[in-house]
Amino acid sequence: MPVTQTPITRELFDEVILPIYAPAQFVPVKGQGSRVWDQQGKEYIDFAGGIAVTALGHCHPVLVETLQKQSEQLWHLSNIFTNEPALRLAKKLTDATFADRIFFANSGAEANEAAFKLARYYATNTISPYKTKIIAFHHAFHGRTFFTVTVGGQPKYSDGFGPKPADIVHVPFNDLDAVKAVIDDHTCAIVVEPIQGEGGVTPATEAFLSGLRQLCDQYQALLVFDEVQTGMGRTGKLFAYQHSEVVPDILTTAKALGGGFPVSAMLTREGIAKVMTPGSHGTTYGGNPLACSVAEASLDIINDSQLLAGVEQRHQWFIKALEEINNHYHIFTTIRGKGLLIGAQLAPEYAARLRDFIQAAAEHGLLLLSAGSDVLRFTPSLIIPEQDVQQGMAKLQQAIAQVIG
């Protein structure tokens, strides 16, 4: 008898997928550049970028060619062996940053998990076995493993799973006095996003980051930058720390690193890395040849002065369009961010309708994100054409008009 195939519809999600997401009612099936098409052939302009992942748009030809070529050579070995793509990528990352050593994983959460473990391992092995306190910030987001979700400053993501990892303290973001009040000789690390992404696209001030660096130096603690969302050109520099004089001890990156292929990395200096020994940490898929080959191609394209200058140019396109919309509708109280990580905070009278705006945008053919409870977030391709920005903003204006009447 012929096999009857189950229709692949949005309704199937509700039957077979763990109910931890609430995806849109349409199912995207194809992407090209900054545009996406669903099962019915409807076209959307993508201002979401897979949550800052598809930094070069969908199906960038160089990444496609790289993946196809590598897929015919070597897929997986395990970390009993090394491989050429991983070594090339690691060398290029160290050449482009402060770092000497790289650890590859598959997601931002795994990179952060490794970073937090390294910070504690370094402190307890080189300074004091009691030096385990981690200072983090309210509204931060660092991943969904139990350790990273506990370091993240949003209890709604960590509550309900039993006892949490201990010795983690949260204080207000951009409040240096609050950090001074809790830091002590037992502190092993301060963990910070240069721009809080999920927490509302809120940039750290230069004085705040500089103060964190000084406190870490004073108390022999490590400064960890979570650049999962801000890294790989998102802010107009390869990494956001490069906008300032503040250099972290450990940096994590993921999302855009693979341009859509799952891969992440933790970067650190030799003096910190040397405390680790074979078996002290690991991962099955980290350093996978497929992932590293695509990430290398992505890095080669993004780490280019012309492309990074183009990010700032596109920032201006978005800000200008959002300000024009705001001048007409008075819907935003603040438009903030850096490069192509932009947040538009809704005025109090519209804050409760955040999901309505995103839904209406989709109806008009625009993919948008939220950040926090009242912020529209824009993380498009770093090479999005001006025409797509203009057309997307026109769709956003239509959506706003529909929601507010």
Automatic annotation (TrEMBL):
Swiss-Prot/TrEMBL cofactor(s): pyridoxal 5'-phosphate
Chain sites annotated for binding pyridoxal 5'-phosphate: G108, A109, F141, D226, E227, V228, Q229, T284
Keyword Protein transport: no
Positions of post-translational N6-(pyridoxal phosphate)lysine modification: K255
Pfam families, sorted: Aminotran_3 (PF00202)
Main location: cytoplasm
Similarity field: Belongs to the class-III pyridoxal-phosphate-dependent aminotransferase family. ArgD subfamily.
Annotated protein name in UniProt: Acetylornithine/succinyldiaminopimelate aminotransferase
Originating organism: Rosenbergiella gaditana
